[in-house]
Design brief:
alpha+beta, Thrombin, subunit H, six-stranded antiparallel β-barrel, 3 helices
Length: about 290
């Protein structure tokens, strides 16, 4: 009997809890059914209730969302700080390299000054120049020339070299008061002493009215390869040495051709330079004296 009483007492609380749970489930189910019925019968009332619940929940959700937004902001700022640190490291390294180059440049400048003093070097006068715009393309099928907006009143004279930052354009062939006609290096009448920069091989660059002048009169056994740079040699007194002209593009049985650095259709402004050379003028004078038309 005692054991039976203990068993009853032991199971009684669990039975109470089960009854309570069942009652709660019944209440919730009933409430849900009631809300469905009310929602069907009066949708406006349910919408108002839903809006009221949303209004009540919004401040709570905003409060809960603030830590998340703050955390995201902190993470973004940490990433930005890391990027700034890396950029500072790169700038510091670049600054150190620039300081090294500055030091090397100063040493070279001092050494150059000392060597000039030992050689009793006397620098020549700086060449005068005039910057002009190209106002017309006066070329045709048989002539490659352009017209510049500077003439004798600006100090331009026949034979002046014409260049751009990219290289040699040609030379002044005719001068007016306000304009100058420039014979391009690609013109059929153009002959310029040049040298292969890498091998110092001398040659003559001859224009043929195409966009690719040809190298002629090379010494026997001369080696020229595509990609070799060609510059003026300074011979003949036409142009000073070292003005870049172009790059060799092909070497075959047809000849040696090069591509000038200066493209005719892209020329907008030129520099007309007076290097004080009279080679072209002397040649023109001799040709005129012999009755030869150039």
């Amino acid at each position: 009997m005692t054991d039976r009483i203990r068993t009853i007492h032991a199971t009684t609380p669990h039975s109470g809890n089960d009854v309570g749970d069942r009652i709660m489930n019944v209440i919730l189910i009933g409430a849900s059914l009631a809300m469905l019925v009310v929602g069907k019968a009066n949708p406006e009332m349910m919408e108002g209730a839903r809006s009221s619940i949303s209004d009540v929940a919004t401040p709570i959700l905003e409060t809960l969302a603030r830590p998340i937004s703050s955390t995201e902001k902190v993470i973004s700022e940490i990433g930005t700080i890391s990027e700034i640190r890396n950029e500072n490291e790169n700038l510091r390294s670049e600054n150190e390299r620039l300081l090294q180059w500055q030091s090397a440049a100063r040493k070279l400048e001092i050494e150059n000054r000392q060597l000039k003093g030992l050689l009793n070097f006397a620098p020549g006068a700086e060449p005068g120049f005039v910057t002009a715009s190209i106002i017309a393309d006066t070329g045709g099928s048989f002539v490659r020339s352009i017209l510049a907006s500077a003439g004798s009143r600006n100090g331009v004279t026949k034979g002046n070299a014409v260049i751009t930052n990219e290289g040699l354009v040609g030379r002044v062939q005719g001068v007016g008061s306000r304009s100058a006609r420039i014979l391009l290096i690609t013109d059929l009448n153009s002959r310029i002493p040049v040298v292969i920069e890498s091998t110092r091989t001398r040659a003559i660059m001859a224009g043929d009215n195409s966009e690719r002048p040809k190298l002629i009169h090379l010494p026997p056994g001369a080696t020229v390869s595509p990609g070799d740079r060609v510059v003026t040699s300074g011979h003949g007194g036409a142009f000073p040495p070292g003005i870049q002209i172009g790059i060799v593009t092909s070497v075959d049985e047809k000849g040696i051709f090069l591509q000038p650095f200066v493209q005719r259709e892209r020329i907008e402004f030129v520099r007309i330079v007076d290097y004080g050379l009279k080679g072209i003028l002397d040649a023109d004078s001799a040709a005129e004296g012999a009755g030869i038309n150039k």
